[in-house]
Amino acid sequence: MATVSEWIEGARPRTLPNAIAPVVAGVGAAIALDAFSWWRSLLALLVSLSLIIGVNFANDYSDGIRGTDEHRVGPLRLVGSGAANPKAVLRAALTSLGLAGVLGLTLVALSGYWWLLAMGALCILGAWFYTGGKKPYGYYGLGELAVFVFFGLAGVLGTVYVQAGRVSWDALGCAVAVGSFSMAVLVANNLRDIPTDIESGKHTLATRMGDGGTRKLYLTLVTVPYALTVLMGVWHPLLFITFVTAPLLLKPIKAVGGGGKGRELIPALRDTGMAMLAWAVLSAVALAL
């Protein structure tokens, strides 16, 4: 039986910024449109958190029963380590994804934008089939694209739309920025796992691009939000305050660009996620003002 602390670690709390940042940025864009609703924002946040916890448990379960996690470097894997029964982890995944579905349905019903049910269904299916099913798309190099779509575009634009009934160029800029940050977090994760993924037959984008190409991709992705800051700052000069978050990326850039491997890359995931969350908070404040 896994302990409470092991279950918490299995939920991968360090990935929570990927769920919080898009909603925060979306709230800022909604305020800029004079359409902020605290309860719709809260429901959107709970949906996003439930989704990412669900995908983390689903990933743990699916990779664990395939044997992909047997020699994985990084946070505890409940199934791969033998700390928890696979069926228990599966129940945790389905419960989290089910909760995301119920909360999402509630948000859609109260807002009246019923077509968003299709987007919600795609998010839940995307969470499961990332590593689940006979042909998980995460094993074919599509994980980063999915993260960009679900925790970038859908997360930010969905948060804005359920409040304003429309989106804006500011919202789109924030969506691309947060999506790029989220991709960078996953790229750093998959860069760390290249040796074990190759051994287990998991063909991520990192295994396809190779070590050098993956490092260049990471460095490119973390520059995108700041390039967008410059562009959006022409109309919203207060957005330039987000540049104070850049120093949070110095250590991860050094680790990735300097050839760090294995456990040396673990802090890069955390620091990239924190930079993303800080950028989202400050951009939201700037747009709100």
From TrEMBL:
Keywords: Cell membrane, Membrane, Menaquinone biosynthesis, Transferase, Transmembrane, Transmembrane helix
Pathway(s) where this gene product acts: Quinol/quinone metabolism; menaquinone biosynthesis; menaquinol from 1,4-dihydroxy-2-naphthoate: step 1/2
Family annotation (Pfam families): UbiA
Chain ranges passing through the membrane: 42-59, 88-108, 113-131, 137-162, 169-188, 226-250
Location(s), subcellular: Cell membrane; Membrane
Uppermost EC category: transferase
Entry's EC annotation: 2.5.1.74
Main localization of the protein described in the UniProt heading: membrane
Bilayer disposition of the protein: Multi-pass membrane protein
Catalytic activity, as annotated: an all-trans-polyprenyl diphosphate + 1,4-dihydroxy-2-naphthoate + H(+) = a 2-demethylmenaquinol + CO2 + diphosphate
Record GO terms (molecular function): 1,4-dihydroxy-2-naphthoate polyprenyltransferase activity
NCBIfam families: menA, PRK06080.1-3
Family: Belongs to the MenA family. Type 1 subfamily.
Protein purpose: Conversion of 1,4-dihydroxy-2-naphthoate (DHNA) to demethylmenaquinone (DMK).
Annotated protein name in UniProt: 1,4-dihydroxy-2-naphthoate octaprenyltransferase
Organism from which the protein derives: Amycolatopsis albidoflavus
Gene designation per UniProt: menA
